[in-house]
Amino acid sequence: MDSPPRKIVHVDMDAFYASVEQRDDPTLRGRPVVVAWRGARSVVCAASYEARVFGVRSAMPAIRAERLCPQAVFVPPDFVRYKAVSRQVREIFARHTDLIEPLSLDEAYLDVTTTKTGLATATETAQAIRAAIREETALTASAGVASNKFLAKIASDWRKPDGQFVIRPHQALAFLEPLPVGRLPGVGKVTEARLAQLGIATVGDVRTIALEVLEGHFGRWGRRLHELSMGIDENPVESERPTMQISAEDTFEHDLPLEEIEPHIRRLAQKTWAGYERERQSRAGRIARTVVLKLKTADFRVLTRSLTPASVPASELQLADIACELRARVDLPHRTRYRLVGVGLSGFIDPDSSAEQSDLFAG
């Protein structure tokens, strides 16, 4: 017999960073707030709903946001405060279920098929979570309720801000049919244009194309596209997803040549190492084996260089030294200028695996 449908809730805080700023500073309430540093290199971290009316969006260059909304109030981001509020919200989630998959500071999936509270439905659980968030943080959240993660995420955006929407299993096909195909996860502008060449503009249109044709054009992604169009998503909520990479990066105020980047690499290595030590404490000492250097050129070309040394990096200094040495593997012309640098650690393994690998190289 088939197992009963999962009950999934996707909770998304409303204009999170901007809402925290408006909560903590009453003079900002009702005004267009843009969370960003000013300057040509800055990007928008968040925009209040008052600013979004003018077309301001996250990840937009701050200078463009200023042109779109000259009256906007720019507030530099304060991630210490945002993380503190995120922890409050996470504690509220944990009262209802242990199956929590955070996507970022301001959103998460919850599997509430079985709950700690005994509430009868996922709808009631979502309502209780949103009410607690409002009462305890003075902020609002929107929620989507469905039988899988894909549908729940779409639903949470349906009645924003401070709203809730439920897609019941028998409603999924009809709900999806008229949506623009761009609403499907993984369908960006390029894929949308390729689908348009096949006469596909809506999710319902995807169903009219044979699976073999979709696979012929898009490979394995074609099958995933077909499944999503049918409302199928078997991916579970993963509450203990292991960290794949810890990194820190920074955009320079002015483009720099490669030889002038070392102080920035060392500063970012310090931040990355601090995050790595926190990860080791929370994940029973998982060890990172690979050092990653990321660079972005003035013309937005992204490069990464990595090294997995024979011995795992044992200190912040070793991490910084290896990251600096990785610059030698960059083979662009000497005149190239860089706008961004990042330092990361990846290739995580369990401590036991590390010991076994060390034994292989012994003797």
TrEMBL record:
Keywords: Cytoplasm, DNA damage, DNA repair, DNA replication, DNA-binding, DNA-directed DNA polymerase, Magnesium, Metal-binding, Mutator protein, Nucleotidyltransferase, Transferase. Its EC number is 2.7.7.7. Its cofactor is Mg(2+). CDD domains: PolY_Pol_IV_kappa. Monomer. Mg(2+) binds at residues 12, 106. Belongs to the DNA polymerase type-Y family. Poorly processive, error-prone DNA polymerase involved in untargeted mutagenesis. Copies undamaged DNA at stalled replication forks, which arise in vivo from mismatched or misaligned primer ends. These misaligned primers can be extended by PolIV. Exhibits no 3'-5' exonuclease (proofreading) activity. May be involved in translesional synthesis, in conjunction with the beta clamp from PolIII. Binds 2 magnesium ions per subunit. It is found in: Cytoplasm. This is DNA polymerase IV. The active site is at 107. The keyword Hydrolase does not apply. The record marks 17 as: Substrate discrimination. Residues 8-188 form the UmuC domain. The gene is dinB. One of its GO terms (cellular component) is cytosol. It holds the Pfam family IMS_C. It comes from Agrilutibacter solisilvae. The keyword Transcription does not apply. It catalyses: DNA(n) + a 2'-deoxyribonucleoside 5'-triphosphate = DNA(n+1) + diphosphate. GO terms for molecular function: damaged DNA binding; DNA-directed DNA polymerase activity; magnesium ion binding. One of its GO terms (biological process) is DNA-templated DNA replication.
